Backbone:
């Protein structure tokens, strides 16, 4: 039996310390025992989000629920917002905002482009009535990292405009300083950097975002932020939460705190660098541009004459290594190696080795071993 490696940017591998707690018998959620879990989770998330000023709320849903919550809690129908789009998840934000009747302006970039903060500055200068700016920090579809810090400095100057950041594959992989950078709403999902199964999402809400909430007239019920805040005053949740996942989150956050946020980010930077050096040593080309490469996922062009879908299939079927293919226009044209969450050096070595073996099988002309060697050179420093 082949050992399995899940090298995708969500879901990501779950540490055994987390898995085992989830196997314990169910507990009731209106108990002092669970109240303590809620308290621990909120406190741990504030540490990971690097915030003291914002409230952090947890929802039982996938990341998209957190995205929807940011729209329904900050805006009213007809409000003008700006969404920067350089990948699939920026597009999803546009679909959600339009579904709720917002007047959406978009800054559209290619999937291999980084959002330019000066474009956002120019838009806000020309449209000072804009109520919100939405940017994806780490575009999981393209591996592109946008400069949230620089955009935060721009949006800060507009009193009634909130800065909403989809950091679903940013949190825990790259720096995301909620308070210091002036981020009003930041979100993540459990199956990404938090090392849990899918099913939970977390959102941070700054005082400025709470002022937007007070103005907001969009209908909301399950995702009404105030309901969750009120319950949190009693260390509980308004509805039955995903109890096992919350218990797992408590453990995962303890593991993250033991390692320390700066070390977690440094580990991800090193895994990403080794992956990039490894694939480049095989003569393959990175998809994301040099000026904006994140630490969560490394997308790579499938070389000329090689079937990208077959490559993903061989790696999984023969070598037990699951990587992700490309999405939309890039299906079959790129593959994506995830290294977000519970990963170490040897996960990257195994993946590069499996990639080399699959490329040999597909007849790609290169010198096997060079990718692994290049990654080892990064790890030996
Ligand atoms: C995974 C992800 C989401 C949310 O997707 P769900 O499938 O709803 O969890 C949103 N944005 C980004 C950047 C993501 O990577």
Residues:
């Amino acid at each position: 039996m082949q050992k399995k490696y899940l090298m995708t940017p969500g879901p990501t591998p779950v540490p055994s310390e987390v898995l085992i707690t989830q196997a314990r018998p169910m507990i009731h959620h209106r108990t002092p025992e669970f109240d303590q879990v809620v308290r621990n989770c909120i406190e741990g998330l504030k540490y990971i989000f690097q915030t003291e000023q914002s409230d952090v709320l947890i929802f039982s849903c996938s990341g998209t629920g957190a995205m929807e919550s940011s729209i329904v809690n900050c805006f009213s129908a007809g409000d003008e917002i700006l969404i920067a789009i350089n990948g699939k998840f920026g597009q999803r934000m546009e679909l959600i905002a339009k579904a709720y009747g917002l007047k959406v302006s978009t800054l559209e970039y290619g999937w291999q482009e980084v959002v330019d903060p000066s474009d956002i500055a120019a838009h806000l200068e020309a449209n000072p009535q804009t109520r919100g700016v939405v940017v994806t920090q780490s575009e999981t579809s393209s591996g592109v990292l946008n400069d949230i810090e620089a955009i935060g400095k721009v949006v800060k100057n507009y009193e009634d405009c909130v800065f909403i950041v989809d950091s679903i594959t940013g949190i825990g992989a790259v720096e995301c300083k909620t308070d210091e950078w002036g981020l009003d709403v930041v979100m993540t999902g459990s199956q990404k950097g938090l090392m849990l199964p899918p099913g939970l999402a977390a959102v941070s809400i700054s005082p400025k975002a709470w002022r937007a909430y007070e103005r907001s007239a969009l209908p909301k019920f399950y995702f009404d932020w105030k309901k969750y805040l009120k319950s949190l005053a009693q260390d509980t949740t308004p509805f039955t939460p995903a109890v096992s996942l919350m218990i797992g989150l408590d453990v995962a956050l303890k593991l993250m705190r033991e390692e320390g946020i700066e070390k977690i980010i440094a580990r991800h930077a090193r895994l990403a660098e080794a992956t990039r050096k490894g694939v480049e040593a095989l003569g393959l080309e990175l998809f994301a541009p040099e000026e904006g490469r994140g630490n969560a996922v490394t997308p790579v062009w499938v070389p000329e004459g090689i079937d990208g879908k077959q490559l993903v299939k061989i790696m999984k079927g023969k070598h037990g290594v699951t990587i992700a293919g490309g999405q939309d226009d890039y299906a079959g044209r790129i593959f994506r190696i995830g290294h977000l969450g519970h990963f170490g050096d040897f996960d990257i070595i195994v993946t590069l080795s499996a990639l080399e073996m699959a490329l040999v099988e597909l007849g790609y002309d290169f010198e096997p071993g060079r990718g692994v060697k290049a990654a080892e050179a990064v790890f030996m420093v």
In short: The pocket of pyridoxal-5'-phosphate is lined by residues 10, 62-64, 89, 136, 140, 166, 168-169, 189 (CB under 6 Å).
